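Rotation project, supervised by the postdoc (A.L.). Task for the rotation student: set up a whole-complex structure prediction and record inputs and outputs verbatim in this book. Inputs entered:
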Amino acid sequence: MSSYAIEASWDRLDRNSGVPLHVQLRNALQQQITEGSYRPGEAFLTEREIAARYHVSRTTIREALVDLANGGYLVRQQGKGTFVARTRDAFDATRLSSFSEDMWRRGLRSSSRLLQVTDGPPAEDVAAHFGSDVRLVRRIDRLRFAGDEPISLQQSHLPLPRLAVSAEDLGDDSLYRLLEARFGVFVTTAEEVISAEVASTVDANLLGIAEGAPLLCVRRFAFSQTGEPIESACIRYRADKYKFYVQQTRGV
Amino acid sequence: MSSYAIEASWDRLDRNSGVPLHVQLRNALQQQITEGSYRPGEAFLTEREIAARYHVSRTTIREALVDLANGGYLVRQQGKGTFVARTRDAFDATRLSSFSEDMWRRGLRSSSRLLQVTDGPPAEDVAAHFGSDVRLVRRIDRLRFAGDEPISLQQSHLPLPRLAVSAEDLGDDSLYRLLEARFGVFVTTAEEVISAEVASTVDANLLGIAEGAPLLCVRRFAFSQTGEPIESACIRYRADKYKFYVQQTRGV
DNA sequence: CTTGACATGTTGTCATGACAATACGACCGA
DNA sequence: TCGGTCGTATTGTCATGACAACATGTCAAG
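Outputs recorded:
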């Protein structure tokens, strides 16, 4: 019984299961890849080998292999063969990095100054992110520096009974680090909307630029690992000191 | 000559161009979609109709249609047909797309007006992209519209002996599509730097906004499938009409 | 030793054909 | 009117076959 199961998982596809053969094949191959049966960059089974092992046509094989290649598990090279992908990073990691990350990599220190912490009812877009249950949010205003120069103004909104961070807790530390340590909440995904504005008088004074100077404005809606909405933020960067870098690839 | 060109763009695929038929077909169908020839949710051409029109096998047709479905342009339903996608949730900034594709995903009709084409030595950042071999570039200025409203100003720079596109060739058509058809060059990756500026007098007049209004400024450096630098562009969007959307996921 | 021709193995492209699964309207009988 | 049957149109699945494009090693000629 168990020997049959083992054999089935290795080279038998069920033609009467109702599940398409190319799906069964794709799953079987994907399992072998994610199991670690192959080292990254190693040559994978050729179409001919798969045909011999699973007794399916090349049509079916190619359907499975192309799907896995599109999913970033395999890399196919005409004339050479099929190889297990070295990294799948390009498929789930962000391809957008900020100037501050660049600065951090180059060893430039970033710091921030807490401006004020206030509680109040959420504005419209903030309320839309947290849902109607949240009737009170804590707004945290910070001025952020790269080196000695002010770079950005950040307004963060947190849902209130849930994530009541205090000004003392926060200090000049990272908000996300505090959320992890204090509440066990990890921000894993975020949706960002990037826009442009001109500096108001108060923004200009804080950032040390002229009124009417261009600002890069980011609205961020952050979620935890469980999908819970965590933070709604509005960050205004000095456009002369901060730029976004995006790596684009062609999907279809 | 022109009648041939028109016919070619509609129902003729070039079997001797070296470009696979399913790629040509996919591009042709995608153009029809992003041009706005079909309303969202409307029934698209059936496989049979495509076969009759383009004289290719179902294998080729399915390859193109499945690609477009995976790309979020079409929805296929067994037994019913193929439909133009109704939801355009996939307009992520990390996806390389043409202006018309981008506008279509935002639910807008796109058009553009050619302003001028001039040749000259490259500016510093443009030269850095193309390398020191390129001593002359062609600059193409275009005004882009979303619906009836001007939305962006685009300056494209192309390396000159290599990619000499003419104003007549270009017309109001897609630059990338022209590069594919005319030179066999496919833009597959790009690096973008997103910044903010304020509108100059001339920009403001063209875009129909006030001088000093905020602009979202994008510098794009585009590469072909072989890694060859293809285009260096500067695009300035009206910040009140255009924003970037980014889905961030955290590594670790 | 170098170079080119050739064989071999790989993935890519395309056509043809058959049948299955699904959706839906037309028709017919109760 | 209701409900079931049937035909038709659609996309989904799978097989087979042929050739093209590309990579690589072998081997003989120079």
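Student's summary: The radius of gyration of chain B is 19 Å.
Supervisor addendum: Residues 2-84 of chain B form a domain with the Arc Repressor Mutant, subunit A fold (CATH 1.10.10.10).
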